[in-house]
TrEMBL record:
Keywords: FAD, Flavoprotein. FAD binds at Y406, S419, T420, H421, L422, S423, D566, H567, D568. This is Photolyase/cryptochrome alpha/beta domain-containing protein. The lineage of its organism: Eukaryota, Viridiplantae, Chlorophyta, core chlorophytes, Chlorophyceae. GO terms for molecular function: deoxyribodipyrimidine photo-lyase activity; DNA binding; FAD binding.
């Protein structure tokens, strides 16, 4: 509903997974109409701390009770979220505004906020300098227009919340029955690199058709939610709009997005091909940050409805979800309440404390995100320069940046620059993918001018597109196969949904990092103790759970959702579908976890840090502690193939035959006991206090030929 001519406007900005000022469509449009006041707010929804409930179609009863008590929002992401909200609040205050923080369901708190705002408008004291100029019998000025701006999210749960917020505001306004008031909810889109209105729907449908899928006519729709004091109108248009976002995902009970993306390609390769089938699909330029903002409304009643940001422990307890946090601690054998920073409030130094075993110390907020982007792309000297080529020009000549080794380093298991470490910022919207894309393009142009190789920059751009692929796939599959045990692969590929085992003890060993496969265990323990796991680690632990242990992939996805500091629901669940063989991967790939550890954690740095039981062993045995002689020899050859020739491991030691620990039969005449072998290999140290492997280690070691091929591809 457009405001009446001469109407005085108030803008509300609902922050969600978009905790930034740069490239924020909602903020720009909220300020574009020059409102009398701007009220930014954030609602900490207590339901985030509750366990995930799977949709009914997903057959949630099939063994998922193993993870039924784990919170969706775990302690690591909760801490990062609270810190990021705090940093956003500080940024807004520097610009003369503020961020109202509320607790509770958005569909209850936001309509109440709007009602309080309208009541204060009626009193004429909502905006400094604006006195009441009401009509006879009222205290309301002749015409007011209230607009609630927000960014949409990519899955049905937040979409349901949006609809309930709309219904709640409608009811609240109707109950107040104040004439001269109009209001609207305006949706914006900013979670993906490509705006949904810009996707090449015809090309994607043609790609699907040529790839064996069915052709579905693509749809493009926008939607605006609007209302008056007495009625609500919902409008839609089939024509794309550069101003509006994707709009509500349901209109008259029809899932608009699912219909719109019905022709979305099933594989990433087809998606990227479609993006370039009719020339380059445009990426909209990022919007610059606004340095001056409209005044923050002086509303005592609204200020009284706000609350301070809690500590992590208090957030769980105040939400009534303290038992969920305690259950997580009990399940994983780690008391999260006692960890540094968990009882501290956002903004305090204690909340920034990290586990010293972590190779990267992640700070929160938009400024940290932009700083990380600058330093990764341009070098450490760019930290305070602001995004742009000028910072890069000032770095010393021929000084390599972290980006220059991205194609190889991104797969490494540890290291401060083994990843861009931007995923957590992207997940909470502390930085937009368009901002990252734009800055990488500047680096690419700089490299071209210098005659340098652009492969690393191109690789990083490609991975931003991969992220889009997963998000749009989640939009397409959210109500069908995204959360189903068999995923959504069967409709496109010949993969058959596997029959998952129900083995809580086996899942517990995987979750706690006690599988007996050091690389997998190190990755899982790092996740448990820091909220982080490398990209390569995620692929390997997922492959082991689903392909080797044959356990329901959704249990792993739920644990990841709980523990990952960079969890993004669409990316996480699509990735798990992919590596479990139930998603968009047409190949039934299996990861050789010992070989992968040798390749991506060659010196066992990650293993030594997180699996200290093996740290005293010779290098080959850190990768395969209970391997027999022939397998240890093969591990050694794999290490040599990786270029590691200085292994502290002698031929005499290699002759020791390390037996599997589960073999406790009496020693036969002429055989050496396991303790004898252990003493020979470990220099008379006690028997290794490390569990037996859950799978045959020999099956987790690929061929040297395969390793050589993988190494050539990596380089």
């Amino acid at each position: 509903m457009q405001p009446a001519l001469g109407a005085r406007s108030i803008s509300l900005l609902w922050y969600r997974q978009d905790l930034r000022l740069t490239d924020h469509a909602g903020l720009h449009e909220a300020c574009a109409c020059k409102p009398a006041a701007l009220l930014p707010f954030y609602v900490l929804d207590d339901r985030q701390f509750k366990p995930r409930t799977f949709p009914q179609h997903a057959s949630a009863e099939e063994g998922l009770h193993f993870v039924s008590g784990l919170p969706k929002l775990g302690p690591w992401r909760c801490r990062f979220l609270l810190q990021s909200v705090h940093m956003l609040q500080e940024q807004l205050r520097k610009r003369g505004s503020d961020l109202l923080v509320m607790r509770g369901p958005p569909e209850a708190r936001i309509p109440d906020l709007v009602a309080r705002l309208i009541s204060d408008l009626a009193q004429g004291d909502a905006v400094p300098g604006w006195a009441s100029a009401g009509q006879p019998g009222t205290d309301l000025p002749p015409s007011w227009h209230v607009t609630l701006h927000y960014h949409q999210e990519a899955l049905p749960e937040p979409a349901d919340v949006e609809d309930r917020v709309h219904a709640g505001i409608q009811a609240a306004v109707k109950q107040l029955a104040l004439p001269g008031l109009t209001w609207e909810m305006r949706a914006h889109w900013g979670h993906t690199l490509y705006h949904p209105d810009d996707l090449p729907y015809t090309a994607m449908a043609d790609t699907v058709q040529s790839g064996g899928g069915r052709h579905v006519e693509s749809l493009s729709s926008t939607h605006q939610q609007a209302g008056t004091a007495h009625e609500v109108s919902r409008t839609s248009s089939m024509a794309p709009s550069a101003k509006s976002g994707l709009g509500t995902r349901r209109e008259g009970g029809v899932d608009v997005v699912a219909a719109r993306l019905a022709a979305f390609p099933a594989t990433m390769t087809r998606f990227r091909k479609a993006l370039r089938s009719q020339g380059e699909t445009p990426v909209r330029p990022p919007k610059p940050p606004l340095q001056a903002l409209p005044p923050y409304p002086s509303l005592s009643s609204i200020q009284n409805s706000g609350s301070d940001l809690p500590s992590v422990c208090a957030a769980f307890d105040e939400a009534g979800c303290g038992p969920a946090l305690d259950h997580l601690s009990s399940f994983l054998g780690l008391d999260y309440r006692s960890l540094p920073g968990m009882a501290a409030k956002p903004g305090s130094a204690d909340m920034d404390r990290h586990d010293p075993r972590s190779s990267f110390q992640l700070s929160a907020g938009e400024e940290a995100a932009l700083g990380r982007l600058r330093s990764y792309l341009w070098g450490d000297g760019a930290g305070q320069q602001g995004c742009g080529g000028a910072a890069g020009d000032q770095r010393e000549a021929n000084t390599p940046t972290a980006l220059s080794n991205y194609a190889v380093s991104r797969a490494q298991a540890s290291g401060s620059d083994a990843s861009t470490h931007l995923s957590a910022f992207l997940g909470l919207g502390c930085i937009s993918p368009r901002t990252v894309w734009d800055e990488v393009l500047k680096v690419r142009e700089h490299l071209l001018k210098e005659g340098a190789d652009t492969a690393a920059a191109d690789c990083m751009l490609m991975h931003l597109e991969i992220r889009d692929f997963y998000i749009f796939t989640a939009l397409k599959e959210a109500n069908t196969g995204l959360f189903a045990a068999g995923g959504f692969a069967a409709r496109e590929f010949t993969n058959k949904a596997p029959k998952w085992k129900k083995d809580p003890k086996l899942f517990h060993r995987w979750a706690t990092g006690t599988t007996g496969i050091p690389f997998v265990d190190a990755c899982m323990r790092e996740l448990r103790g820091s909220g982080w796991m490398s990209n390569r680690g995620r692929q390997n632990v997922a492959s082991l759970l689903a392909k080797e242990l044959n356990l329901d992939w959704r249990m792993g996805a739920s644990l990841f959702e709980c523990l990952l500091v960079d969890h993004d629901a669409a990316v996480n669940y699509c990735n798990w579908n992919y590596f479990a063989g139930t998603g968009s991967d047409p190949r039934d790939r299996r990861f050789k976890t010992i070989s992968q550890g040798i390749t991506y954690d060659s010196m066992a740095c990650l293993i030594s840090a997180w699996v200290p039981e093996t740290s005293h062993l010779p290098l080959p045995l850190r990768h395969a502690p209970f391997a027999r002689q022939e397998l240890v020899s093969e591990v050694t050859q794999h290490l040599i193939a990786q270029g590691i020739t200085a292994c502290p491991y002698t031929q005499q030691q290699l002759e020791g035959d390390v037996q599997e620990p589960q073999q406790h039969s009496p020693t036969k005449k002429g055989e050496r006991s396991q303790s004898d072998c252990s003493a020979q290999l470990q220099g008379q140290l006690p028997l290794l206090d490390y569990p037996a492997p859950v799978v045959d280690p020999a099956a987790q070691l690929g061929s040297l030929k395969g390793r050589a091929i993988a190494r050539r591809k990596a380089s």
